[in-house]
Design brief:
heterodimer; A: mainly alpha; B: alpha+beta; six-stranded antiparallel β-sheet; 12 strands; about 20% helix; elongated
Chain lengths: ~400, ~280
């Protein structure tokens, strides 16, 4: 097996965190202490290995939401819509910066990751289309748009169930997980245009707007970030620019993830150290953004019969899609396909981000169904990965 | 192994793939034998059916149908009677009731059988309270058979707070409202009919407001949107409350939702001047 250079073990999404260094990761003496330690460390908040934030904050949001306690009311959720859009743009920037750094040196990896996500998308979309048609599941949107949206949500992976430093296969899976979100984000632009077409929106405008806005935001950031005279001024510029990205996407009803992706790639490719500036400043908002997205998704989820009805095909075919995608792409990565598939099982925050993104665009009932199915499915896969991946590794080694 | 060389898949990996995909397909085929319970909507016959462009009027018709479906639970249609008739119908203290009619005599018509003089649309603002505009000289038909009772009356503004049958479908009518009337946009005018609430699309042109000392917030003349009649409730196209049309000495006015909210709070307060 090919040795992985040390520098690839560090994830671009996340990175080193002062909280980790300060608090450390204590050996869990009891389940309660184990949970508390996870809540204290960035494992519970960020995108790093460990008990993933989705398993904590999705149920937490659900309990706070209208379905249980009602502390997060529908009105509040409605008002959070713009904030969620800006948060999605921030996630897009993080993915874009990861892509910008990898694309020059890891074309093969990018190809393999895109193939894996495309296969998962197609399998989940195909199975969902068949299932919805065969069972006459109520749907108030375009079948094609809905199943593609569901497939794109399923394609996301986070590889957070194992430490990237633990073994070469985990390191490769981590890089694949970072890059397999790029194709779905780009395809989501087309799905947004498809979903908006019946409303009379111009498909060409919907398709071209995200890259154009992203380039404009990237250019603005390039011009102003490094000229800030103080740290707070620079942070203000960064947050203002990201708000512009999210706000413009919300105004034009286009994908904020795609806008952020293009801006992130731009900042990485242009001369200077704009990407480092953005990375440093985003580190301050990254954890709140993740928590906000997960809590909002949890609160927005309703355990409706139709969402539960759609859950079995989603779970089954995401599993099958990941296994098939890993089988097809593993030869290009010099890892065993079963190892790659097992590390790619956790969907991570981006699956929820995709679902929130599409639920803003789909008609009410369909959007609710998609978000609920993906939120429950994400929690289920995170739990599955937490239980299965360590056992799988132990079984394989011994 | 040379870098970037492809590694052939082992038989074990392929067997795992076939097993997982086979199980997934088998379970999918099994689950597809059942139909979604209580399905009333059918998916589009063609996958691309929802993507075809539709005429603008069809879109507007669908939007109006959507609005009326969403806001109907938030409204109550109230029959109105002239005040004098209502007073006659009310039992008077100390007045002996007329003797019972003998068999075969013609039974006089009771007020309850008289058709209402008009209909008003009350907007649910709490689970058991609804706000309605009642023109001077009219009053809601109440009585032992009716589930409507007057909780508070504000004759100055011609508004009443009615106690109605409790409903869970109210929640955030006022708090989730639109704070200002949108200009140069379509809104939905919901009004009362004998068979229930109905809806019409109305185009709002200018939405300049005028102040009125009787209301806490500035009002918008109803003339900005031809067709708005007093008593109608105005919603946005995404079913959020915009306001209510009321009579005014200067002509019908649209009272924005925040002013309605303030009025409801005043009417709910015991001993308030409005009561």
């Amino acid at each position: 097996m090919r040795q992985v250079p040390p520098d690839v073990r560090r994830r671009e999404l996340g990175g080193s965190d002062p909280i980790d260094r300060r608090l450390g990761v204590p050996t869990p003496p009891s389940p309660l202490a184990w949970l508390l330690s996870l809540l204290r460390t960035r494992s519970a908040l960020g995108l790093s290995p460990g008990l993933t934030p989705a398993m904590i904050f999705l149920p937490f949001g659900f309990v706070l939401g209208p379905e249980v306690l009602g502390w997060i009311s529908p009105v509040l959720l409605n008002r959070l819509s713009l904030v969620v859009t800006i948060a999605l743009a921030v996630l897009g920037v993080l993915v874009g910066m990861a892509l910008g750094r990898e694309v020059r040196t890891a074309t093969r990896l990018f190809f393999a990751a895109s193939m894996e996500s495309a296969v998962t998308t197609m399998m989940v979309a195909g199975a969902a289309a068949f299932f919805i048609s065969a069972t006459r599941t109520p749907l108030d949107s375009s079948l094609l748009g809905f199943v593609l949206a569901l497939g794109l949500c399923a394609s996301s992976s986070s590889a957070t169930s194992a430490d990237p430093d633990s073994e070469p296969a985990a390191a490769v899976a981590t890089r694949v997980a970072d890059l397999d979100d790029v194709l779905p984000i780009l395809l989501a632009v087309g799905v947004f245009a498809l979903l908006a077409a019946p409303g009379g929106s111009d498909v060409l405008v919907m398709t071209l707007a995200p890259p154009l806005i992203g380039l404009a935001v990237g250019a603005i950031g390039w011009l102003v970030f490094e000229r800030a005279e103080s740290g707070p001024e620079r942070v203000l510029h960064v947050l203002g620019t990201l708000s512009l990205a999210g706000g413009a996407a919300a105004y034009l009803h286009v994908s904020p993830l795609a806008v952020g992706l293009v801006a992130g790639v731009t900042w990485t490719l242009v001369p200077g150290r704009v990407d480092r500036v953005v990375e440093n400043d985003l580190r301050r908002v990254q954890h709140p953004v993740v928590v906000l997205l997960l809590v909002t998704a949890g609160a927005s989820a309703t355990l409706s019969p139709v969402a539960i009805w759609l859950l079995p095909p989603y779970l089954l075919f995401r599993l099958a899609g990941k296994v098939t995608g890993a089988w097809l792409s593993a030869p290009y990565l010099d890892v065993r396909s079963s190892d790659l598939a097992s590390f790619l099982m956790p969907p991570g925050v981006l699956a929820v981000a995709f679902a929130l993104n599409f639920s803003q665009m789909l008609p009410g009932a369909s959007g609710q169904m998609l978000l609920s199915t993906v939120a429950v499915g994400t929690a289920a896969f995170e739990l599955f990965a937490l239980a299965v991946v360590p056992q799988w590794g132990r079984w394989r080694r011994g | 192994m040379a870098p970037h060389a492809t590694e052939p898949q082992s038989g074990r990996e392929t067997r795992l793939l076939i097993l997982v995909v086979g199980v997934a397909v088998a379970v999918l085929l099994l689950l597809a034998q059942w139909q979604f319970p209580g399905s009333v909507m059918t998916p589009s016959a063609a996958p691309l059916a929802g993507l075809a462009a539709r005429a603008t009027f069809d879109e507007m018709a669908n939007t109006m149908a959507d609005v009326i479906g969403r806001v109907s639970p938030l409204t109550v249609v109230v029959p109105l009677d002239p005040v004098a008739l209502e007073e006659e119908a009310a039992p008077r203290v100390g007045v002996k009731p007329p003797p019972a009619a003998a068999e075969g005599d013609q039974v006089p018509e009771t007020p309850a059988e008289i058709p209402p003089a008009g209909w008003a649309l009350a907007l649910r603002v709490r689970s058991d309270l609804a706000l309605v505009h009642v023109p001077t000289g009219m009053t809601p038909r109440t009585g032992p058979d009716s589930s409507i009772d007057i909780a508070a009356h504000d004759p100055l503004r011609e508004m009443m707070l009615l106690r109605v049958a409790e409903s869970n479908a109210v929640p955030d009518t006022l708090s989730a409202s639109i704070r200002t009337l949108p200009a140069f946009a379509y809104v939905a005018m919901v009004s009362a009919t004998p068979v229930g609430p109905t809806v019409q699309p109305v185009f709002v042109g200018r939405a300049d407001s005028v102040s009125d000392p009787r209301w806490s917030h500035a009002l918008v003349p109803a003339a900005v949107a031809p067709g708005l009649t007093p008593g109608a409730v105005v919603f946005s196209l995404n079913s959020r409350l915009v306001g209510m049309v009321v009579d005014n000495p200067d002509g019908p006015m649209i009272v924005p939702a925040p002013a309605l909210e303030t009025l409801v709070q005043a009417l709910e307060t015991p001993g308030s001047p409005a009561e």
